[in-house]
Amino acid sequence: MTFETVINLDIDGPRINRHLYGHFAEHLGRCIYGGFYVGEDSEVPNAGGIRLDVVEALRALDIPNLRWPGGCFADEYHWRDGIGPRAERPVMVNTHWGGVEENNHFGTHEFMALCELLGAEPYISGNVGSGTVREMSEWVEYLTRDGDSPMARLRKTNGRDAPWPVRFWGLGNEAWGCGGNMTAQQYATEARRYGTYCRDYGDNKLYKIAAGANGTDYAWTETLMRQLGHLGCQRVTSSFYHALSVHHYTLSGPWEKKGSATVFSTDEYYTTMAEAARIDEVLSGHAAVMDCYDPNRTVGLVLDEWGTWFDVEPGTNPGFLYQQNTLRDALVASVHFDVFHRHADRLVMANIAQTVNVLQAMILTDPDTNALVLTPTYHVFRMNRAHQDATSLRVDVRTPPPSRPVGDTTLTTVSMSASHRDGRLLISLSNLDAATPTDVTVDLRGGAVTDVESLILTAGTPQDHNTPESPSTVRPRPYEGATVESGRLQVYLPPHSFVTVAGTLSD
Ligand code: AHR
Asked: FRET pair for 48, CA 20 to 30 Å: which of 34, 160, 266, 385?
């Protein structure tokens, strides 16, 4: 079967904000401790305790921002516990994630050092659930205020003279659940209050992100939008917060039995893909509500938690959310990115949960040997990185896309998106069909494309994954199955595959 599409190379869509490729690191399981941070005395090469192999691998992804310290943990985190000499920092219990002790050895200074090593912007989630307005306000002062003030002096005492630039600031997390079990109206009031006292110091301008909805809770979004303006669908008039977040996870079964990350049936594979594709409906729903109050799209939508959530690996701590990562996860990621690119006029940031050792990770580290494994999802982020800050190009269809019924929905089994940046075109294509290949034709109208280079990420089965013993089972390979002739791109997509086609663009 051939699927025919057209890309108008001379008609630009919205810019794809690089922050759609953002990340998330929570004090959860082995994400921070053992993942990012091993401590200065570790035999694993490190800088101030931060693993250098992890930093090196992530630098290759050009990760634009890192969200921290949670998640649910953010609303029980008290930042003052994580500054000063490490040996003197108080110990707390991480009540959300395994009930383990948190020694606070990774705190504000360590996180900012990590961001500097990664070349990523920090995105800090403040504590609304169990903190105070004063505590959050002082954290902003500690981080960003220059000159003489109580918190700036405290920061200097702890070894950092200059303030850090911090733009992204979260006003709590999942306020409807672990962040305080509030109603939308209660939280909206809190967000206005907390937002008021998070000040801009000097040139540092905060971009405040209100804790948003769970999945399709559009009423939550409406309440938060209403707080920014007058009653009814009228223009936004205030800036207690500049963006709203939303969280949406991809499961292959019900919450009580999410399914295994590696042992799954073909039916479960398709259910997972259909769930992943639902992100389009979720983002469209929130964007529609926001459009009503903010037709000029000045308020950002931030999907600051997304990704697969499966049952933990057998024998691991249920509170640590450690799961393997297969080719199926890679396709979940590629589908999400296509949808993100299409929503680039409203969606300003997205953060996969989570970067190392938790949920849909880029990197898995072995707790015994410290060996590091790059996951199939990692490779999608790498293959797609030229979409960051690129200008999106719409993919129009000329023939009905291949599809199949999945439960009570229809899954389109070929997913695509395209963009250009600095004279280079990048087209991403995924074939979600587990068994059938597809030929895709792209009429490249309005320009010429030369120097075509293609990569493919696929494997024998969707269950294939990487381990310390076999780290390259799923990895990108140069691909000969994409050719451009007379302005037409022909791509052969094997079953369960992700392909990128890059080329030089001219008029
Ligand atoms: O990412 C894991 C958890 O999922 C986060 O802590 C929370 O915000 C969400 O429920």
From this structure: 385
